[in-house]
Design goal:
Rossmann fold, 6 strands
């Protein structure tokens, strides 16, 4: 039997290991699974350096949303260590002035003690329109927020606002790559995924139907199947 490939999962903004819980059992059959800690630093470069210091020598890397921005930084710092790459509900473009201004407003509200109000504000953009009233998904978003805490959320938003343009990175990616999105991702439109898949040689594009931004939680079976195919391909 071939040696199992370590699998490193990076969550997104205001997200904890809970986001990957629905798909980990399927991934675990393919190799040892770890979830990176991305809450301790306030720049993409520092987050990636710390993750690399704690990661196996070589690994398959999956990043969701902000985790995709971190994955791009990991690729810039240590491309030889990434054996496979999955980019889930993410984008390669830098923050726009409008997005950064919205983030600064969210930071101000969090500093004023309104962290859960901000999570409620984010929720409609996180899920498919048919799941706007799903209490389980709303609870998941709040539980993950509690996992990371308001101070880490501020650090994450600072890193996201200052992230570099990763589009020049795409043509240099040589490992097997999966680009996945939901068909109605209101946070990061799947047109961004199409553009990334077109720019990465040999990339596989998966658009999950009836799915928003939280693909692992909203459509776990379809997402797990795409990830297992990526790992075994």
């Amino acid at each position: 039997m071939a040696e199992a490939m370590p699998i490193l999962l990076v969550p997104g903004l205001a997200s904890s290991p809970r986001i990957y819980a629905p798909v980990i059992p399927a991934l675990w059959r393919c190799g040892p699974v770890a979830v990176a800690n991305h809450i301790r630093d306030d720049s993409m470069a520092a987050i990636a350096r710390r993750i690399l210091a704690e990661a196996p020598p070589r690994f398959a890397l999956a990043g969701h949303s902000m985790g995709g921005y971190i994955a791009f930084e990991i690729i810039r710092q240590a491309p030889e260590r990434v054996m496979r790459l999955a980019l889930l509900n993410t984008q390669a473009v830098p923050d726009t002035p409008v997005a950064s201004e919205r983030r600064r407003g969210q930071i101000s509200r969090v500093e004023a003690g309104r962290f859960h109000d901000v999570l409620d504000e984010l929720f409609p953009g996180f899920v498919h329109p048919s799941r706007q009233d799903d209490p389980g998904l709303r609870r998941l978003v709040h539980d993950m927020g509690d996992d990371i805490g308001p101070e880490a959320f501020i650090r994450q938003q600072t890193a996201v606002m200052e992230r570099p343009d990763s589009r020049p990175t795409l043509s240099a990616i040589r490992c097997p790559t999966l680009v996945l999105s939901g068909d109605q991702d209101a946070t990061i439109p799947n047109s961004q995924s199409v553009d990334m898949a077109d720019a990465i040689a040999g990339a596989t594009l998966a658009i999950i139907p009836e799915c928003g931004h939280l693909s692992q939680a909203e459509r776990p079976q379809a997402t797990a199947e795409a990830l297992v195919s990526w790992l075994r391909g």
